[in-house]
Specification:
Elements (H helix, E strand, L loop, with lengths): L1 E5 L3 H12 L3 E5 L7 H6 L2 E2 L3 H6 L3 E4 L4 H8 L5 H4 L5 E4 L5 H13 L3 E4 L2 E2 L2 H5 L3 E5 L3 H12 L2 E6 L5 H30 L4 H10 L5 H12 L9 H18 L4 H17 L8 H8 L3
Parallel strand pairs: 1-2, 1-4, 2-3, 4-5, 5-6, 8-9
Antiparallel strand pairs: 7-8
Helix pairs in contact: 6-9, 9-11, 9-12, 9-14, 10-11, 12-13, 13-14
The protein binds NADP nicotinamide-adenine-dinucleotide phosphate (NAP).
NADP nicotinamide-adenine-dinucleotide phosphate (NAP) binds next to helix 1 and helix 4.
Length: 292
Amino acid sequence: MKIGFLGLGQMGAAIAANLVRARHDVVVWNRSAEKARSLVDAGATLAASPRDAATASDVVFSMLADDAALNAVLSGEDGVLAGLKAGALHVSMSTIAVATAGDVAARHAERRQRFLSAPVFGRPEAAAAAKLFVVAAGTAADLESARPLFEAISQRVFYVGETPSTANLVKLCGNFMILAAIEAMAEAMTLAEKGGVPKAKLLEVLTGTLFDAPLFRTYGTILAEEKFRPAGFAAPLGLKDMRLASQAAEGERVPMPLLSLLRDHLLQTIATEGEDIDWSGIGRTIARNAGL
Ligand code: NAP
């Protein structure tokens, strides 16, 4: 099976490397071509455009920053839609809007191209270790054809339904909960620290008792060590996700007051710290608001 891979940022480069390592025949493309160099050294082929990568592939993955990036890569003379053969499959792993996923599914269906939406949970370290969680939606047959590829990049695949955009709704719900947990941990750590308890000590107690989950361990350690740079998941991408969750909530008429607070803390963090901070950098904003 020939595989195309579009988008070699922090996540895409790590995922594509695992596909190459699993001895798949991989054609890669990235807007900034220099990011493809190590993959080409590892055995991948470089395509000149998204269209060329798609034309050469039975399955083309995309892992791009946001809705606008995905649209740019899909559309136009050099885009995926123009190159992908009828019957070939596009697997979109980016975190995008629910509405965009629906739109992309319809554009592929018009051309008799297949589409799976398959956003992921896990930071770049998890991607590099092939330990992602894939949340997939589309036809069950399409999922089964992509399953061996997902197995090369993840620890578990969840199938959430026939309608591709449902996977994006699940992903946005998950990212809302991750940031809510970061907010809660950062507030608790700030209280503990001002009261004379080191953050690391609080984390040891919490993760050793009722909060023994990978999320609390990973983000608790980042918060305790204040390791917000280099960003594994940049705050502007997190802000994008809160915006997309908010759009979905507005569409479904679901008030989410906590989501509004998280969005504001991210915005404040980006405004004061810059665009290059990890989204868990809201911990710094929370500490500053308490005078630390
Ligand atoms: P990243 O390192 O910033 O990479 C973004 C990628 O998108 C790069 O390949 C970039 O190309 C490309 N891109 C941006 N704008 C483009 C445009 N207009 N046209 C074509 N390509 C464009 O981001 P990432 O952390 O890998 O995240 C990628 C996606 O995964 C996002 O949707 C994010 O929300 C999601 N995600 C991230 C994490 C995480 O922890 N990082 C975890 C789960 C899901 P250039 O190299 O040319 O800039």
